[in-house]
Design goal:
A hairpin with a 3-residue loop joins strand 8 and strand 9. The chain has 11 helices and 10 strands. Helices cover about 45% and strands about 10% of the residues. It is globular, with a radius of gyration of 18 Å. The site of glutamine has 11 residues, from loops.
Amino acid sequence: FVIPDFVGFVKDVEDIYWKCKSNTDGKVADYIPQLARYSPESWGVSICTIDGQRYSIGDVDIPFTLQSCSKPLTYAIALEKLGPNVVHSYVGQEPSGRNFNELVLDYNNKPHNPMINAGAILTCSLIHALIKPEMTMAEKFDYVMNWFKRLSGGDNIGFNNAVFLSEREAADRNYALGFYMRENKCYPKRTNLKEVMDFYFQCCSMETTCEAMSVIAATLANGGICPTTEEKIFRPEVVRDVLSIMHSCGTYDYSGQFAFKVGLPAKSGVSGGMMLVIPNVMGIFAWSPPLDQLGNSVRGVQFCEELVNVFNFHRYDNL
Ligand code: GLN
């Protein structure tokens, strides 16, 4: 086993869980009205090692929407199908140093990276116009959902229609980003922007649990092979690229501090999810809706920071 004393490890994780539970800072996102309905009390952590050891504590089977945690997954699909040269002729690899939904492009007039809204809308346009142009919208939805299901080892990935509708209703900024990118000729030919926006909102509104997400994180930790089904889903070079961008850009404008303090690839989402990947060891998913100023889950960030204080998982711990 990669974690020989799993029982001992889990004991420490449990202590960290309870420590974070008492932290009541932050505010549940309300710019998408349906997200405001989640309880600030909810707090769950699930772990899956690359050799399939599992542990969960707290609210690990309450469904929530993926939101930005879908971004590394759609990016991975694009890389798997198109390769890094094509994908990165449309989107950069640089942290934006701004909010996740900031109306800004880089000096090449491309979105800064695939982990913020502009970059993820762009990634969706690549799946839409380059990978599966022949598919109907319904088929594209199924196509992405199927990837997510396989990544989670066949776990039930759902869809929250109320969140989708609410998100689409309250999407002035995302539409602004979409049109701004069209003005700057960011998309591949034959892109139907209205369909791309719906597709992006649908990816954000896929619904899942901590348990399922920990398997997805573990698939990334395991170089693209799902640890529970042993299915090879992404090539290792794809996962390397995804983890590199998560490392530098995964937690919005906290990414630099996160890379410094935690030293691991992660991705946060506005529904309070935090996906943490410990390469070659395990995937962890923490979920708690209250967010800090920058849009990261307060308990999620605290959990990651406490974890590397106790264990030497930081990329540069073993020097
Ligand atoms: N669906 C959200 C949005 O587009 C995703 C953003 C996030 O999770 N930070 O605004």
